Each structure stands twice: as C-alpha cells, then as structure tokens.
Amino acid sequence: MEPHVNPEVRRVADDIGSMEIRGAAKIADAAAAALATQAKESDASTPEAFRSEIRVAARTLHDTRPTAVSLPNALRYVLHGMEGTTVEQLRESTVAAVERFRERLERSQADLGAVGANRLKDGDRIMTHCHSTAVLACVEAAVAQGKELTAVVKETRPRNQGHITAERLHELGVPVTLVVDSAARRYLNGVDHVMVGADSIAADGSVINKIGTSGLAVNARDRGTPVVVAAQTFKLHPGTLTGHSVDIEMREESEIVSAEERAAIGDPTVENPAFDVTPPRYVDAIVTERGQFPPESIVMLMRELFGENTTEPWLQSVT
Ligand SMILES: O=C(COP(=O)(O)O)[C@H](O)[C@H](O)COP(=O)(O)O
C-alpha cells in the first residue's frame, strides 16, 4: 500500500506547481514546513512506515518544479536529519531538522543581505529581473544603513514577477521605474548594478535564473554594468559536481497566449521556458551568506559544503 501523504503536503505541492508559492527560497521553506506537518500528523505505527511516509511526501514535493535546487537541497537536509529507532524519535528529529533548516534559511538571508549591501553605495541605481527575496535582502540592508537607492524593475514576462519586486521596493522606500523586458538595454547606461537571484548555481559558476537573465547579463557586460547574483549557498547544485546538468522547466503555453489567440495567429508552436543559464563570464560576483565569490571559484565552496555527498535520499525505495 502506498504510504499516506498528508493533505497539507499535497496542497503545498500543488501551490508550488501552480506558482502560488514561487521563488527558490520560498519554495524551499514551504516544502520543509510541509515535511514537518507530515511528521507531526503521521499516525505511522512503525519506524519503517514513518520513514516511507516522509520519503513519499518528499518525493511529492520534489516532483513539482525541476529547476530550483533549493527544493531538493531542503528535502535532503530534512531527510538527513531524520534519525532514531522509534516513531517518536523519528518524528522529533524530523521536526527539529525542519526548524533548523528554516532558521538557517532566515539567518542566511540576513547575512547575505549584509554582504550584498556592502556593494551598494548611497545614490546607486539597480536593475532587477523577476522577484528575488535574496536581492531584496541586499536592498533592505543597504536602506537600513541609510543608503538611498533607486531601481529599474523589469516586468518579467510572462508572469510579471517584476510587479512583486516593484511593490516590495516601494515598501522599502526605493523609487521604482517599471519597464518592459525588451527596454532593459536602453536603461542599462544609467544603472550601477544589475542584481538578480538564482534558482541554481552550477559547479562551473553558471547561474540558472528566470528566463531573460542571460540576455540581461550579456547586455550588462556590453554596457560595463556589473552583474551581481544574490543567492544563499543552498542554491548550489550538488549534482553539477558530478556532471549532471540543471533541468530547465518548460511551462504551459497558456501563460503566453490563450488557445483562441493562438488559433487566430496561425497556430504557431509556442514554447515557454521558465529559466535560462548565464555563463560565469557574464557574472561579476555571487553574493552568499558566506561572503562574495567570483563565479569561477564557487566550485571550491561546493566541494567544502557537499563533499562527495550528492545522494538523494527521497529516491530510496518507499517500502
Ligand atoms: O527566478 C526566480 C523565480 O522564478 P519563479 O517565479 O518561476 O519561481 C528568482 O529569481 C529565484 O527563484 C530567486 O528567488 P529567491 O532569491 O527568492 O530565492
């Protein structure tokens, strides 16, 4: 019999899939919290049954969106923390691992923000793409230091996450100019830093982030504008150490055109990749909670953090 998956886990998985919950850090946080609910409310009668439940719940969460490695990294963290020989011990250790993960997430965001704020000077103008809580942490820390910033915010088609960024920046007191994505190059001359987040960072320092990031970075390099990637270390993709590539999510065409619109324009093939890969040569710095790194050196940090351990415990047998 398939182990019981808590309805809250299914709800969170659905919300991640539909992007109600979105952005790499928020996805990781919500997935970890859902595992805690699974653990707390489990009525498994044996340790084996409990472990199976947690693993199946982790897999349900894992199979929602493929690109943000924060999701499997969060699940891996919790599953590694699950230990004990009784159901109660397993439950307690799992819930404690979730709490540790969520605390670390919060702390790393604040520490990263302090590092990123050091790059920003009073009067600087930044350009953003998509909505990244890590980028906003840097801005928030800089504003708290009394620096006055302005921002050019790309709307980020097709889902317009730029609107969320605009709103958050407004709340921080940062004046925003909202532009369509294709206008970015025109505004780069007047911008001091391009600041983006990341869904995954590969061992060679490539940055995987919202579609449009790579074009922005190439244009920024052409204009001499530094590109800063704000990303906690749980965005580092351990699988890339052993030659795996990062899966780029292809989303529904309906996010771009309705069925009627599509039919009216001759039924073209529509493709909707959600992310792209920015090669390390277009990135000036990756800002993490452990300091700032040139992208080419990120592999050293990955080896230190992950060692040889790149296994995925939720892929173990469910029985
Ligand atoms: O690309 C996106 C979100 O894509 P989507 O909207 O498709 O999830 C964000 O830049 C990163 O996830 C970083 O966000 P954060 O810094 O908050 O982790």
What is the element layout, followed by pairings?
Blueprint (H helix, E strand, L loop, with lengths): L6 H12 L5 H18 L5 H16 L7 H12 L5 H33 L5 E4 L4 H12 L5 E5 L6 H11 L4 E4 L4 H5 L4 E4 L3 E2 L5 E4 L2 H11 L3 E4 L28 H6 L10 E4 L6 E4 L2 E3 L4 H9 L13
Parallel strand pairs: 1-2, 1-4, 2-3, 4-7, 7-9
Antiparallel strand pairs: 5-6, 6-8, 9-10
Helix pairs in contact: 1-2, 1-3, 2-3, 2-4, 2-5, 3-4, 4-5, 5-6
Bound molecules: ribulose-1,5-diphosphate.
The site of ribulose-1,5-diphosphate (RUB) has 16 residues, from helix 2, helix 6 and strand 6.
Question: How would you explain this protein's 3D organization?
Answer:
The protein is an alpha/beta fold and 319 residues long. It has 2 domains: 7-109, translation initiation factor eif-2b, domain 1 (Four Helix Bundle (Hemerythrin (Met), subunit A)), CATH 1.20.120; 113-306, Rossmann fold (3-Layer(aba) Sandwich). It contains 11 helices and 10 strands. The protein has helices at 7-18, 24-41, 47-62, 70-81, 87-119, 133-144, 161-171, 184-188, 213-223, 259-264, 298-306; strands spanning 125-128, 150-154, 176-179, 193-196, 200-201, 207-210, 227-230, 275-278, 285-288, 291-293. Strands 3-2-1-4-7-9-10 form a 7-stranded mixed β-sheet. Strands 5-6-8 form a 3-stranded antiparallel β-sheet, with helices on one face. Helix 2 packs antiparallel against helix 3 (47-62). The model is unreliable at 315-319 (pLDDT under 50). Ribulose-1,5-diphosphate binds next to helix 2, helix 6 and strand 6. It catalyses: alpha-D-ribose 1,5-bisphosphate = D-ribulose 1,5-bisphosphate. Keywords: Carbohydrate metabolism, Isomerase. Belongs to the eIF-2B alpha/beta/delta subunits family. R15P isomerase subfamily. Pfam families: IF-2B.
